[in-house]
Design a protein that fits this description.
The chain is an alpha/beta fold and 147 residues long. It has six helices and seven strands. The strands form two sheets. The protein has a four-stranded mixed beta sheet with strand order 1-7-6-5. Helix 2 crosses helix 3. The radius of gyration is 15 Å and the shape is globular.
Length: 147
């Protein structure tokens, strides 16, 4: 049986940059539901970052569950309207423990990872990445795709 203190220690000693998904898939705020769904389905990912049209600044995150909820509603919504998740971020040099705290506190499954030096988006960290480290399994992030 594994000591739970060891798992917390693992999260403290592993950096976000060690298991994040490099790069982001994004869409503009006015992208229709069908376009966001096509990105998620076509790339096999679980989230798309909604970026400001002018500066590319993240303004929201649309998860696959957000798309499902919007599809059930039947409304013709835009990405910004669908995005149930605020664009929370974590620095690439933060510990997974800190990232897990942010996810738990805000009840989100994806964080935008920003460069430690410049603060610009460089990737995404998913709750499943933290779960993989907690389980002692290798992260699936090594493929470079957002999941």
């Amino acid at each position: 049986m594994t000591n739970s203190n060891n798992r917390v220690s693992d999260l403290v000693h592993v950096r976000v940059s060690d298991c994040m998904h490099h790069g982001i898939l994004s869409c503009p705020p006015d992208a229709p539901l069908a376009q966001v769904a096509a990105i998620i389905a076509g790339r096999g990912v679980h989230a798309v970052v909604v970026t400001d049209d002018h500066r590319g600044r993240p303004v929201g995150v649309v998860s696959d569950l957000d798309v499902v909820a919007a599809a059930v509603d039947g409304s013709d919504l835009t990405a910004r309207q669908i995005a149930a998740t605020e664009p929370l971020s974590v620095s690439s040099d933060e510990s997974l423990h800190r990232a897990a705290q942010v996810m738990a506190e805000h009840r989100v499954a994806h964080l935008i990872v920003v460069d430690a030096a410049g603060g610009y988006p460089v990737g995404v960290l998913a709750a499943s990445d933290i779960a993989a480290v907690s389980a002692g399994a290798p992260s699936e992030a090594s493929g470079g795709e957002i999941r």
